[in-house]
Every structure is written in structure tokens, then in C-alpha cells.
Design a protein that fits this description.
glycosidase, binds beta-D-glucopyranose, globular, Rossmann fold, 30% helix, Glyco_hydro_3_C, carbohydrate metabolism, 23 helices, beta-glucosidase activity, hydrolase
């Protein structure tokens, strides 16, 4: 009896000791030291939810409204959001910051007076895509990522790669192209560049977020084929070629489901079909149902609202949501945290080399500017013409980039006037005085607002100054050359409009007409510089000036970069990655953009805004951009792929590795500089596929490459590879990518309408390249455009 009692006591003491150790004495598993699975096992439900729901939002100008807004997260002031730290388990918080055109953080801080935290405003995405140069974009990414790292950022909320479905899309400047191959490859280059620093990216906005009108409520109705071939393809390429740390789901619904709540999109397609290994975060306040988001595989809810945590906890407790789902989502986040600077305790300097980066920005800007017109070699500006009349307010105030979360707090921006002066050109002083006085007057009447106020109620851009005709006539006698700058700005939250935005305003039209008349009467030239983020109407006025340079929104060094092109220091080599149509009504989505609203169903949304249900139907199907213009023979003003140079190139010796397709074909083409100055050429490979079972666009871009700087007479051979997936289209009935047997034509050209060399090969038998899941099926009949 006694011995039994003794044994029980010993056992009891042992259990007690073991229990005490387990609960209080030994350290719980630490991230990085113990396997992730053990860390998750040690987490309470509340801790898991803490990690899955961001730490709130601190938007300058907006304060607490029960939405999470106004909660501070001060690690890096001005950064878009952070995750919660869980120190008990060695889990640090992550800092995320916008955005596509540079690190967006506050440039000054209350607690460090006198110090500044400026970042480089890089050229916007439309410009970077127009370089057609993945190596250059990677270099920009490397410098951009380094700035992020030195400012303590773990994940940059970029790049953004939604398709330019319609020229009025308010965020098109943040996006690359109308073509998914360009968008996907440029994105992959940017991601690889940024992430080489050990800083993460969040490729966004996944997916089919092609407008700002009703962006939080719009249901995008799109066929499975258009979705796969146009709107998902770029993301697929980017995931496969760069495996970004994170993906940001978009605000909109696709075929009836919020993207952030779509398991089909975030798990079946993104992870199972494409092999994505990172985690998914919502766009800020995106989606409605936190539980559905968890189930979909949307790991992180940003910026994080307390109500979301409550919903998730209650769903687990009531058995509606399995804790296993949370564990998988937590694992996705922890695996990325392990790679972050915050986890590694990186001591950031807050002092990136902004001087060096400004030079990279300047070079990149010159590489993506597109020379649209150059009659009688009006450009480069002759060295003897030193007296320049610069017209237009945007000659004196550069638009470096767009607005909203794609904006950057930069230390300065170089105007075109400044750029020309820096290069030793004399600018007419009287004009400078008039245009800058007009800008100053406008600014004094429209005081600067904080980010939130500006977002809610944007200040309209200053209208063009109505310069008297007499002044223009005087200047035409007194100066050698006229440069007319025309600018446009747009950004998140709103789409652009046709009047005074897509079209030139009456004042702009009059200024341009008067300048052209006056200067041409004196046999002097007029150059137009377009400082714009997206497509505008050009056909009605393009015959008037002698040359047109599309400078896009070229980042903080813009004025210097434009001058580099105007003076011939750099030979332009940019080409359009998006079509400039002849008229807005020609755009295939013109009739359906931006869709229908249902105001009778409106509710009160976030931050006092109305939330109006809406839908948009992508009736043009796969016929977006040049796929439409080429197939339906609609001539644009400037086609996809178009851009001039100060030299000329000959394409020759297109050769295919085989005339029958057997798993792979390589095409080589030689390009020779046949002109008088050194230059680079962006060559494009289009493929025309047999249209047997499926409707096919006349041609589709399947490869592109840019030559190095070729001296006059110099040649370079470019190589392109075609694999089965480049031959295939998405067959909806079969839910598979298939290539039809028959004759394929390879067309290598300087643009989508300027094909220089062709060659053909045959595919002997129909090929099923990949079988996919039948998901994201539209709930309604779409009256889709067919050939
Ligand atoms: C934008 C995102 C951005 C986020 C954080 C959202 O309004 O749509 O692109 O990353 O805000 O600033």
C-alpha cells in the first residue's frame, strides 16, 4: 500500500514538473529555431488570428472610425500597413509599403526633425514596359528594392500588372500593357530585381481589376477563355518566372465572387495550377467575408480591421471554419517572414543612395520614351538652335508620376524647362514667367491637401494657360524652335474622362494650333512632348507639329531625360506597349466600360463613401488591344509595338530551327543598323495560328527582345523560343490549353503592323498542352465578340 502511494506521489511530482516546464518554464518554440509546424502548434487561436489580420491603418488625414483606420503602426511612418508581431514566438511584424513607382513613405517625421526620408520616383509602369527591356527593368527593380530595404520595408506592394483594357482606366499608368506577355515578363523582371535584395513584392491586383469606377463592388463578368488568356496570363507568367513572395488579391468580384474570397482563383489556379509558393494578401479593406477569405487561401487581411478577427474567431469556435485552414494560412505567412529583413534583424540605414538611383531613373526614362512622329528629322534638335520657346504649363511643372498609392514622396522633380537649361539651352524668359505665374496662381487658390483629403476629393489639375495669339506670333519671330508640353495626370479611385482628358481641352488645341501656325509661317519647327501616364487622343492634332515625343510620366529626373532625347544624347528606342486608337469609339471595350451601376442597392460603405453594386461585362472577350485592331482591321493612330528611332534598322535572315514543330522551335533574326547614328531596336515576334476549332486573333505577341546599342552598320542576331504553350489557346469546352494542327506563321517585326520577316512551320497533330480545372465559370450568358 505504502509503496503504491509512494509510486503515485513520484508520478504526480514528475507530471507536475513536466507540466510546469511545458506551461511556464521552457521557452515556447521560436520562429527560425523550431520548425514552422511547431511554432503553429504553440500558437493560440487568438495569436493565429493576430497574424492573419493586419495591424491597422494610419492614413494621414483619416482617423479612427471603427474600421481600423487611425490605428497607428509607426515602424515606418507612411508605410501602407504592418502585420502584428508575436514576440512570445519570435515572430516580428512585417512592414509593407507602396507602390509601383517607388517606395511610398512619409518624407518627414515628427520625431526626427530636420531629417528627410525621400525616395526615388521611378518612371511609371507604362514607360518601363515601353522599354521592352527586361534587363533594364530588373536593374530598376534592384535599385528600387535596395531603397525599400534601407528604409526598413519588408514587402513592396508592387509591381501592378492589370491589363490596359480601356484607355480611361485611372490606374493605367501603374500597369504595363494591353498584352499579357509584356505585362508578365516585365513584372517578372521587376520582381526578380527587387527580390534580389531580400525584399518581397506583392504583385497586384489579382485579377481583372481594370477600372476604378466602383472598384470595390464591381462584378467583372468575363468568359473563362478571356480570363485565362488575357487577364490571368500575365500573373501566370510572373508567378512562374519570378515566384513573388506575395500576391495581392483585387477589390472586384469575378463572375460573382470577390477575388479575395475565391478559392478557385487563389488556391486552384494560383497555387495548384501555377505552383505559387508565397502568401496572398487582400487589397486594403478588400472583400467582405473574412471567413470566406480564409477558406479561399487569402492568408492575410490588410490593413486589418478588428471585426475581421472577431468573425474568424467566432467561426472557428462555432465549427464553421476549421482551424486547419488557419494553420495553412499562418504557415504561408511565417514562411515568408523567415525570409524578411525584419526577421533577420537587418539594420537599415534610412540613407539609400538617392543620387545613384536618380541616374538609373534618368537612363530608364530615356529608354522607354516613344518617338511617335519625326517629320524631316526635326529631332534631334539641331545644335545651332539655342533659343527655345517652351509652351504649356507642363513644360514648367513635370508630372513625374500618377496620384494615389502609386505616388512617391520625392525630394525634387526636374521640369523640362530645367532639363533644357541644364543642357545649356536658353529658354524664353517671358514665356517661362507667364506659365509659371499661372501655375503659382492656381496653386495659391488650391492649397495642398493631405493624402486622405486629396484621395476623397482630388484637386483638378491646373487648366492650360490661354496664351495670347500676339505673344505667340512675337515668339515665333524671336525664338528658333517651339516645344509644346501637354500633360495628364490620373490615379487610384477614379477613371479618366473623355472631355478635357482623353481629348485635348479647347485651350490646349488652340495653343497648339496657334504655335504651329506661327512657327510654320516662319519655317520653324514645333515639337510636342506628351507628359502623360496613359493613352490620349492624338489623331485630331498629330498632323500639326513636326515631331511628337511620348515622354510618359518619366519619374523625378524627367526633364533631364526628355532633354537627353530631344538633343540626341540618347537615341529613342521605346515602343508602345499599348495602342493609341484613332478614336475612343474604336476601343473594343468602349461600349461596356465602366459598366452598369445599381444605385437602388447602394449602401453606406467605408469612410463615408457610398458603396454601389455594379457590373461590367467583357463583351470583347479576347479581343483586347491589337488583338482586336489587327483582327477586325481597325486602323489605330499608333499601333501596339510602334516607335521611331533617329536611325533605321534592317531585319534579315529570319530562320526557324525546324519547319515542323516538335516540342520547341527557335527563331533567329538579324538586325542591322542601317542609319547614321547608334541605336537600339525592340523586335517583336508575333504568331498567327490556324483557326480551326477556336476563334483566333490575327496574331499574338509570343516573344520580344531588344538589341544592344548598335553602331551604324553593326548587326545583332536575336533568338526567340517557342514552346507548346506559346502555340496554345484556351479551349473552354475542354478546360484545356490546346494547339490545333496546321500551319503557323512566325512574323517578326518592328511593330504589330510593321512585320519585316515571316516564316512558317507546321504542327502535325492537335496538341493538348495542359488540362486545367473548370472554375470561375460566368453565371450569365456573355454576348462575346467573335471573328
Ligand atoms: C490600392 C493598392 C495599395 C493599397 C495600400 C489600395 O487602395 O488599391 O494598390 O497597395 O491601397 O496603399
Amino acid at each position: 500500500m505504502a509503496s503504491i502511494r509512494l509510486r503515485v506521489t513520484i508520478l504526480g511530482t514528475a507530471l507536475l514538473c513536466y507540466g510546469l516546464q511545458g506551461i511556464g518554464q521552457s521557452k515556447p518554440p521560436q520562429l527560425g529555431k523550431s520548425p514552422v509546424a511547431d511554432v503553429i502548434k504553440a500558437m493560440t487561436l487568438e495569436e493565429k488570428v493576430q497574424l492573419l489580420v493586419g495591424a491597422g491603418f494610419n492614413l494621414s488625414g483619416a482617423t479612427g472610425t471603427g474600421t481600423g483606420v487611425g490605428q497607428t503602426q509607426d515602424r515606418v511612418p507612411g508605410a501602407a500597413g504592418t502585420t502584428h508581431a508575436i514576440p512570445r514566438l519570435g515572430i516580428p511584424s512585417l512592414v509593407t509599403s507602396d507602390g509601383p513607382a517607388g517606395v511610398r513613405i512619409d518624407s518627414v517625421r515628427k520625431n526626427s526633425p530636420g531629417k528627410t526620408y525621400y525616395a526615388t520616383a521611378w518612371p511609371v509602369a507604362t514607360l518601363l514596359a515601353s522599354t521592352w527591356d527586361t534587363a533594364l527593368v530588373k536593374k530598376v527593380g534592384a535599385a528600387f528594392g535596395h531603397e525599400a530595404k534601407e528604409y526598413g520595408i519588408d514587402i513592396i506592394l508592387a509591381p501592378a500588372l492589370n491589363i490596359h483594357r480601356n484607355p480611361l482606366g485611372g490606374r493605367n499608368f501603374e500597369y504595363y500593357s494591353e498584352d499579357p506577355l509584356v505585362a508578365g515578363r516585365i513584372t517578372a523582371a521587376m520582381v526578380n530585381g527587387i527580390e534580389a535584395n531580400g525584399v518581397g513584392t506583392s504583385i497586384k491586383h489579382f485579377a481583372a481589376n481594370n477600372q476604378e469606377t466602383n472598384r470595390n463592388t464591381v462584378n467583372t463578368i468575363v468568359s473563362e477563355r478571356a480570363l485565362r488568356e488575357i487577364y490571368l496570363k500575365g500573373f501566370e507568367i510572373a508567378v512562374k518566372q519570378s515566384q513573388p513572395w506575395t500576391v495581392m488579391s483585387s477589390y472586384n468580384l469575378i463572375n460573382g465572387t470577390y477575388t479575395s474570397e475565391s478559392k478557385d482563383l487563389l488556391t486552384t489556379i494560383l497555387r495548384n495550377e501555377w505552383g505559387f509558393k508565397g502568401f496572398v494578401m487582400t487589397d486594403w479593406f478588400g472583400g467582405k467575408d473574412a471567413v470566406a477569405q480564409m477558406q479561399a487561401g487569402n492568408n492575410l487581411l490588410m490593413p486589418g480591421v478588428p471585426a475581421q478577427s472577431t468573425q474568424i474567431i467566432e467561426a472557428v469556435k462555432s465549427g464553421k471554419l476549421s482551424e486547419k485552414v488557419l494553420d495553412a494560412n499562418v504557415a504561408g505567412i511565417l514562411n515568408i517572414i523567415l525570409r524578411s529583413s525584419s526577421f533577420k534583424g537587418y539594420k537599415y540605414s534610412d540613407k539609400p543612395d538617392l543620387k545613384k538611383d536618380a541616374q538609373i531613373a534618368r537612363t530608364a526614362a530615356t529608354e522607354g520614351m516613344v518617338l511617335l512622329k519625326n517629320e524631316n528629322s526635326s529631332l534631334p534638335v539641331s545644335k545651332n538652335l539655342h533659343n527655345i520657346a517652351l509652351f504649356g504649363i507642363n513644360g514648367y511643372e513635370l508630372i513625374a508620376g500618377g496620384t494615389g498609392s502609386g505616388d512617391v514622396n520625392k525630394a525634387y522633380k526636374v521640369s523640362l524647362a530645367q532639363g533644357l537649361a541644364n543642357a545649356g539651352y536658353a529658354i524664353d524668359g517671358e514665356l517661362q514667367q507667364k506659365f509659371t505665374a499661372h501655375l503659382a496662381d492656381y496653386a495659391s487658390k488650391h492649397p495642398k491637401k493631405n493624402f486622405f483629403q486629396e484621395f476623397m476629393n482630388p484637386t483638378p489639375p491646373a487648366p492650360e494657360y490661354a496664351l495670347a495669339k500676339e505673344t505667340i506670333l512675337q515668339k515665333a519671330s524671336a525664338t528658333d524652335l517651339a516645344v509644346v508640353a501637354i500633360g495628364r495626370n490620373a490615379g487610384e479611385g477614379r477613371d479618366r474622362k473623355i472631355e478635357d482628358d482623353y481629348e485635348l481641352s479647347n485651350t490646349e488645341k488652340e495653343l497648339l494650333r496657334n504655335v504651329c501656325d506661327a512657327y510654320h509661317a516662319q519655317h520653324k519647327k514645333v515639337i510636342v512632348v506628351l507628359n502623360i501616364g496613359g493613352v490620349i487622343s492624338v489623331l485630331p492634332w498629330r498632323d500639326q507639329p513636326d515631331a511628337i515625343l511620348l515622354a510618359w510620366q518619366p519619374g523625378l529626373e524627367g526633364g533631364n531625360a526628355i532633354t537627353d532625347i530631344l538633343t540626341g544624347k540618347v537615341n529613342p528606342s521605346g515602343k508602345l506597349a499599348t495602342t493609341f486608337p484613332a478614336a475612343y469609339s474604336d476601343v473594343p471595350s468602349a461600349k461596356s466600360f465602366p459598366g452598369k451601376e445599381f444605385p437602388e442597392k447602394a449602401t453606406n460603405g467605408m469612410l463615408g463613401m457610398k458603396s454601389t453594386p455594379a457590373e461590367v461585362t467583357y463583351e470583347e472577350g479576347i479581343y483586347v488591344g491589337y488583338r482586336y485592331y489587327n483582327t477586325f482591321h481597325v486602323k489605330p493612330a499608333y499601333e501596339f509595338g510602334y516607335g521611331l528611332s533617329y536611325t533605321s534598322f534592317k531585319y534579315h535572315d529570319l530562320k526557324l530551327s525546324s519547319t515542323t514543330f516538335n516540342g520547341k522551335i527557335t527563331a533567329t533574326v538579324s538586325i542591322t543598323n542601317t542609319g547614321k547614328v547608334a541605336g537600339k531596336e525592340a523586335a517583336q515576334l508575333y504568331l498567327s495560328a490556324p483557326a480551326k476549332k477556336l476563334d483566333k486573333p490575327a496574331e499574338e505577341l509570343k516573344g520580344f527582345a531588344k538589341t544592344r546599342l548598335l553602331k551604324p552598320g553593326e548587326s545583332q542576331t536575336l533568338t526567340f523560343t517557342l514552346t507548346p504553350s506559346e502555340l496554345a489557346s484556351f479551349n473552354t469546352q475542354a478546360s484545356a490549353w490546346v494547339a490545333d494542327a496546321g500551319k503557323y506563321t512566325v512574323k517578326v517585326g518592328a511593330s504589330s503592323a510593321d512585320i519585316k520577316q515571316t516564316a512558317t512551320f507546321t504542327l502535325a497533330k492537335d496538341l493538348t498542352v495542359e488540362k486545367d480545372h473548370r472554375v470561375m465559370v460566368p453565371q450569365v450568358q456573355i454576348n462575346e465578340l467573335k471573328k
